[in-house]
Amino acid sequence: DSDLSMRTLSTPSPALIFPPTSPGFQNGRGSSTSSSSVTGETVAMVHSPPPTRLTHPLIRLAAKQQKEQAHVERLPDQSMIHIFSFLPTNQLCRCARVCRRWYNLAWDPRLWRTIRLTGETINVDRALKVLTRRLCQDTPNVCLMLETVIVSGCRRLTDRGLYTIAQCCPELRRLEVSGCYNISNEAVFDVVSLCPNLEHLDVSGCSKVTCISLTREASIKLSPLHGKQISIRYLDMTDCFVLEDEGLHTIAAHCTQLTHLYLRRCVRITDEGLRYLMIYCTSIKELSVSDCRFVSDFGMREIAKLESRLRYLSIAHCGRITDVGIRYIAKYCSKLRYLNARGCEGITDHGVEYLAKNCTKLKSLDIGKCPLVSDTGLEFLALNCFNLKRLSLKSCESITGQGLQIVAANCFDLQMLNVQDCDVSVDALRFVKRHCKRCIIEHTNPAFF
């Protein structure tokens, strides 16, 4: 205990998310040194632990009375650490400023497996530098306990911040930088090259990221036996508008262990890119190509090569997909559980029939804004997909109350039904409610409530 006290006394600790106008920032007794600040922005501060001795008698008496009333101080260390584990990074740093005991507890290594920072004004680069420096004090230049870094929506994150993570966090397993549009390919390459255990990567909204690959130096150092593979299993590249087929080819060749891939609104992806993907990534369970307007039935033929491994597929608003593409998926991907085909106006009752007869374990289906789907298609669903729990028929002009009644009479486990902008009667909605008691109905009929 004495060694720990001496160590923490000589080690600065960061406190994050203190705007210059807040009381905590204006009170100089809380910190001994602070980094430079800019008006109107959030910066990282460095301070020493709170003093252990109060000199003035009146202050000492007030502190004693306050301590007697603070029942939280009676909790054992393990309980305090458990409570601290629910706090975000900035609040945990605030707790380190309260007293000596809280300082020591707040920097328990078990609490620093995750760093979570959010906000547009925070100086993320500096915050990450200060935090990793503090966490590396027992193992110089290497932070072995940190496994997750989440800095979503931090627009001031730059390549410098990611480089800090890459250099100091070799055990990193999860990185989320969604909405941080200032980072580039080079910084992402550094992270995936220097963090060999990285499995979860979210770069959604990072418009400058065009592919995922190793750095040239890392590729040279790898032995031929190891190859040029990256251990990423979950990759979210939603809204990476610059991603093209060639970049997807590079991703597929390096990330062969992918099981979850999300390419929503990657508008430059075509069927050729999906062909590259299926050559290398044969273990994909979840795939989204929503709003990829160049993906067609030929792309569905490629995706169908995943066969029974595919459980989740989103092709929403892919206007070039018709019953032909749905038939490929239905024929080969028999264990499909989730399909989002909203806005695929080329899908008809025939496509729904193929799907219902072959994917009988389907649990969630969205065929909203498919005007060619009618009650006939719903009848095929009702007679084959008894496990259906979620069904969206929003803006399906050909759907009537009769089709809904057939579904409700056979799919007792239905939990969500969306019939907004559909011409269905109140009696049909009441029929659904009677037979599917746990079903939440989203509708636009003012007479039903």
Automatic annotation (TrEMBL):
<keyword id="KW-0433">Leucine-rich repeat</keyword>
<dbReference type="InterPro" id="IPR057207">
    <property type="entry name" value="FBXL15_LRR"/>
</dbReference>
<dbReference type="GO" id="GO:0005813">
    <property type="term" value="C:centrosome"/>
</dbReference>
<comment type="pathway">
    <text>Protein modification; protein ubiquitination.</text>
</comment>
<dbReference type="GO" id="GO:0019005">
    <property type="term" value="C:SCF ubiquitin ligase complex"/>
</dbReference>
<dbReference type="InterPro" id="IPR036047">
    <property type="entry name" value="F-box-like_dom_sf"/>
</dbReference>
<dbReference type="InterPro" id="IPR006553">
    <property type="entry name" value="Leu-rich_rpt_Cys-con_subtyp"/>
</dbReference>
<keyword id="KW-0498">Mitosis</keyword>
<protein>
    <recommendedName>
        <fullName>F-box/LRR-repeat protein 7</fullName>
    </recommendedName>
</protein>
<keyword id="KW-0963">Cytoplasm</keyword>
<feature type="domain" description="F-box">
    <location>
        <begin position="69"/>
        <end position="115"/>
    </location>
</feature>
<dbReference type="Pfam" id="PF12937">
    <property type="entry name" value="F-box-like"/>
</dbReference>
<dbReference type="InterPro" id="IPR032675">
    <property type="entry name" value="LRR_dom_sf"/>
</dbReference>
<dbReference type="GO" id="GO:0000209">
    <property type="term" value="P:protein polyubiquitination"/>
</dbReference>
<dbReference type="Pfam" id="PF25372">
    <property type="entry name" value="DUF7885"/>
</dbReference>
<keyword id="KW-0131">Cell cycle</keyword>
<dbReference type="GO" id="GO:0051301">
    <property type="term" value="P:cell division"/>
</dbReference>
<comment type="similarity">
    <text>Belongs to the FBXL7 family.</text>
</comment>
<feature type="compositionally biased region" description="Polar residues">
    <location>
        <begin position="1"/>
        <end position="13"/>
    </location>
</feature>
<keyword id="KW-0677">Repeat</keyword>
<comment type="subunit">
    <text>Part of the SCF (SKP1-CUL1-F-box) E3 ubiquitin-protein ligase complex SCF(FBXL7) composed of CUL1, SKP1, RBX1 and FBXL7. Interacts with AURKA; interaction takes place during mitosis but not in interphase. Interacts with BIRC5; this interaction allows BIRC5 to be polyubiquitinated by the SCF(FBXL7) E3 ubiquitin-protein ligase complex.</text>
</comment>
<dbReference type="GO" id="GO:0031146">
    <property type="term" value="P:SCF-dependent proteasomal ubiquitin-dependent protein catabolic process"/>
</dbReference>
<feature type="region of interest" description="Disordered">
    <location>
        <begin position="1"/>
        <end position="49"/>
    </location>
</feature>
<keyword id="KW-0833">Ubl conjugation pathway</keyword>
<keyword id="KW-0206">Cytoskeleton</keyword>
<dbReference type="InterPro" id="IPR001810">
    <property type="entry name" value="F-box_dom"/>
</dbReference>
<keyword id="KW-0132">Cell division</keyword>
<comment type="function">
    <text>Substrate recognition component of a SCF (SKP1-CUL1-F-box protein) E3 ubiquitin-protein ligase complex. During mitosis, it mediates the ubiquitination and subsequent proteasomal degradation of AURKA, causing mitotic arrest. It also regulates mitochondrial function by mediating the ubiquitination and proteasomal degradation of the apoptosis inhibitor BIRC5.</text>
</comment>
